[in-house]
Amino acid sequence: MIRLSLIGIGTGNPEHVTLAAVRALNAADLILLPRKGEAKSDLVDLRRLLCRNLLDDSSRTRVVEFDLPQREARADYLGAVDDWHGAIAGVWAELMATHLPQGGRVGMLIWGDPSLYDSSLRIARRLRSCMKSRMKSTAGREGEVEQKVELQVEIVPGITSLQVLTAEHRIPLNALAEPVQITTGRRLRERGWPDNAASVAVMLDSGGAFEALTPEGLYIWWGAYLGMDKQSLLDGWLADVAPSILARRAALRKQHGWIMDVYLLARRPL
């Protein structure tokens, strides 16, 4: 039996980690920390800091780091993501089999929240088949009887970048009695402003998807590295501040080697 906890840890401020997340961390037998390369070392550094500060002194939890597989850059975006998820699930299965051969509790620290534009839940759904495949392979080599794979997944919700964005700009997500749509930079660039949306929250933008929109009449609230000590904020009418956002984004990315940003667009100030 493997019990996998996907633990939302907020967006970079250790004070945003909930008491439920702290309990889940200390209940784990094994915590897996992904490394995403030197350019994004800040992300694993924060996870290391949380483990050092939040695990009880008497805790017997083991912390194991691993290199996250890289996603192929190819035209078939969804296919590339699907293959990437399969590779990650395979790595998870291997690590769990190696470090918890008799089963136990595994914790994964999820940036933000597992429910919002994060693939951990989708990867976890593929984990069971990866575990079965690995056990069949092991049983075949060693002449053992194949065991039944039992996997339970729990979610510990965390603070999202959208919550921090609206808190830092001191705004709601939507105008009074109006809907808000959450989308990605790629879809905004390809499809434009979503139908019937009074405000649009944009995540996973590789840079400047708002340039695909007619800027007149649109207000933007932008934030990068939300919750971290290098947090950066800008807001204003899109036609006025778009160049400033693009310039600051480029400068910050050059300075830090990576960037995570999110923004909210609306047809009038909220």
From TrEMBL:
Its EC number is 2.1.1.152. It is an enzyme of class 2 (transferase). GO terms for biological process: methylation. Keywords: Cobalamin biosynthesis, Methyltransferase, S-adenosyl-L-methionine, Transferase. Residues 4-129, 140-240 form the Tetrapyrrole methylase domain. Pathway: Cofactor biosynthesis; adenosylcobalamin biosynthesis. InterPro entries: 4pyrrol_Mease, 4pyrrol_Methylase_sf, 4pyrrole_Mease_sub1, 4pyrrole_Mease_sub2, CobF. It comes from the Bacteria. NCBIfam families: CobF. This is Precorrin-6A synthase (Deacetylating). It comes from Halomonas kalidii.
